[in-house]
Amino acid sequence: MAFPNVRLASRPLHFIYLCDCSGSMQAQGKIQSLNQAIRQSLPGMAAVAHDNPEARVLVRAVRFADRAAWHIPTPTPVEELEWVDLRAGGVTAMGEALELLAAELRSPPMEQRALPPVLVLISDGQPTDDFEAGLAALMAEPWARRAVRLAIAMGHDADGEVLQRFIGSDLSRGSAGGALPPGEVPGASGEMPRHGPGRSPRRPLQAANATTLARYIQWASTAVVGAASSSASRLADAAASQEAVPLPDLPPTELDPLDEPDPLKW
Amino acid sequence: MAWILPLATSHRFAGIDAPVRIVRGLGGGSQGQVFEVVVGEEALALKWYFPTFLRRDPGLAERLAESIRRGSPNGDFLWPLALLRPTGSEATTLGGAASGFGYLMPLRPAGFQGAVEHAAGRLTISLQNVLRSAFFLARGFHALHSLGLCYKDVSLGNVFLDAGRGRILIGDNDNVEVSGRGGGAVVGTWGFMAPEVALGRSRPDGGSDLFSLAVLLFHLLTRHDPFKGALERAIPCLDLPARRRLYAEEPLFVFDPRDDRNRPDSIEHAAALLTWPLYPRALQQQFERTFGPGLSDSRSRTLTGQWCQQLAATLDQRRLCPNCAEENLLDVRLSGLCRSCGAPLPPPMRLRTAAGLVAVAAGNELHPHHFDVLLAEDLDHPLARMVAHPRRPHLLGLENLSPHSWTLTLQEGQAIAVAPGETGSLAQAATLTTPDGEVTIERPGEPSVAASPR
């Protein structure tokens, strides 16, 4: 006497890290912080995946230094994922990393039907190869254009412009369509700030220290995964949004350099 | 996870005498985090909001205070108990969280799991308990709507199931508001929102709740989404614009009786094709109506009371296959074939009461509403339950769950007293006399009593 052994139909949700492993990531334990932040975020990510039967969350990672390579090549269910530590050394072949990614976002190997992929680029420096060619190859893929693209800048040597180009233009700002100039605090015009002063998930996230990095990684792997699978409650002010995936509020970061004048441990 | 309240510490809050000890974090979302706390001797749950969310929902504190004053609509809600604001002296110990507030609610009792476990096929549950859960869910919304309130954010994530008892609990009651007031930041969850809310044409209210409730009931009863069929399969990337089309701009029910363009796929949507045929037409028609004319006209949506009536009536049709014991739902006067093994199902023995006609099957119950046509359907106080003889599983009896003694009259005329807690065999029974009313035992092939079922 039992209900039929069936389950809700699901779609894959590809979550892909692109991790800068250049030599500078060795300084001040940055690469260790990144390994730690990703490892710590996995149980929370698995919990979100568990609560979203409509999504099969599959994780992969690309590392890039002198060359780019798949660090975790197989799309792995998050609950089965064991994070292998990244090691730093070399230059910053970010363009090649984007090309590797582009090849995997082509259909096939991409499934015909999926949820919007989530791509998280983490870097502390500037690309040393042909970033433009990599970005062009990536953005030629429909799955990349439909993906949620996030970028985390570790420290202040990261190339904010390059990271912003990976994300695309910041659509979340202003009702008249114009993005605010970089650094301008929204709300000065009396408008309610959507993501708190100076921060937006459509801009590179400044992780000035290990705590902030961990919070952003946790946010990307939980709240953003929930948004990409549309399982989160919807807010009235987002109802008119034209974004393909409306992004959740950023986590509170007391140590955000824009919130606090005295910064920077690395 | 990074918790916004310090764990394993005690704090003073305005509005509550005893200190509140934060025991552990239970979970978090985009609005805030939930903690297990101890207040005095009592273990409770505390939801604490992120400051970013509070800025978006300025009416939240007043709304919660009103809900707390009013009290829970019935026992099936994890209802807010008290609003907590830190006292001035806690400003330093609570750090950034001190500028916010939270509310206390009961902890989810052991035995209840998220309804997503059911949707994901990760729990075992009987068809009877699925129907009971659906009934209690509809009844909870009935109680809430009767107070003039609406829930607004119905989804699988806000409901908990006790699969072994067929009970539910409704959580996340912080969006509850007087229907039609249109405040609050949260408007719903994709896939559950009524089209007019998803399109931004109106704010959630009692009418949109009826749509969302039907979606949730459909999920519970079928483990499928009412709008995911061929049209969903044609969408490569299910992002927000695609969902808006599927659920709001051009919604088409997968089992729409007049339009078959969105039928479930035999492989990808197999759940719907297996489970939908389990249910009687009268129940299916409620979905066809709510997801048909009800898409654009909220007055065409099945009301909470109608759901309660239909779901209770469906439970009365439950019978067990004599060959494989599988649960089947069929008109009690008809024969059919078992959905599982295909064996013939002869019309069952049935119990006729002043306001009901119930198939005889182990586990089926008689309730007060079966005896009085004026009583609302209620499964909380069963008067009788059909149970098998401890050593002869094919011999069914009626267990007296009422506080009164019954008289069972056998076909030969002999009368037997059945005290509370005792079970009288139905094998030779003709009628049962109870203070609640008369029960006639009808056997297939015998002429049916003239009285019509409710």
Description:
- The complex is a heterodimer of chains A (266) and B (454).
- Chain A starts with 10 loop residues before the first strand and ends in a 31-residue tail after the last strand.
- Helices cover 28% and strands 18% of the residues of chain A.
- Chain A has 266 residues and is α/β, with parallel strands linked by helices.
- Chain A has a single domain, classed as Rossmann fold, CATH 3.40.50.
- Chain A has a six-stranded mixed sheet, sandwiched between helices.
- The radius of gyration of chain B is 25 Å and the shape is globular.
- In chain B, a hairpin with a 4-residue loop joins strand 23 and strand 24.
- Chain B has 454 residues and is an alpha+beta fold.
- Chain B has a seven-stranded antiparallel sheet.
- Chain B has three domains: 98 residues, Phosphorylase Kinase, domain 1 (2-Layer Sandwich); 196 residues, Transferase(Phosphotransferase), domain 1; 94 residues, Tumour Suppressor Smad4 (Sandwich), CATH 2.60.200.
- Chains A and B meet through helix 1, helix 6 and strand 7 of A and helix 1, helix 4, strand 13, helix 8 and helix 9 of B.
Topology:
The complex is a heterodimer of chains A (266) and B (454).
Chain A: E1 11-20, H1 30-51, E2 55-64, E3 68-77, H2 94-105, E4 118-123, H3 131-139, H4 142-145, E5 148-154, H5 160-167, E6 205-207, H6 210-228, E7 233-235
Parallel strand pairs in A: 1-2, 1-4, 4-5, 5-6
Antiparallel strand pairs in A: 2-3
Helix pairs in contact in A: 1-6, 2-3
Chain B: E1 9-11, E2 13-14, E3 20-28, E4 32-39, E5 42-49, H1 51-56, H2 60-70, E6 82-86, E7 102-106, E8 113-114, H3 115-119, H4 127-146, E9 149-150, E10 159-162, E11 167-170, E12 177-178, E13 186-189, H5 195-198, H6 206-222, H7 230-233, H8 240-249, H9 270-275, H10 281-290, H11 304-316, E14 318-320, E15 327-329, E16 336-337, E17 344-345, E18 350-353, E19 356-359, E20 365-366, E21 384-388, E22 396-400, E23 406-410, E24 415-418, E25 423-425, E26 429-434, E27 437-442
Antiparallel strand pairs in B: 1-3, 2-6, 3-4, 4-5, 5-7, 6-7, 8-10, 9-12, 10-11, 14-15, 16-17, 18-19, 18-27, 20-21, 21-22, 22-25, 23-24, 23-26, 26-27
Helix pairs in contact in B: 4-6, 4-11
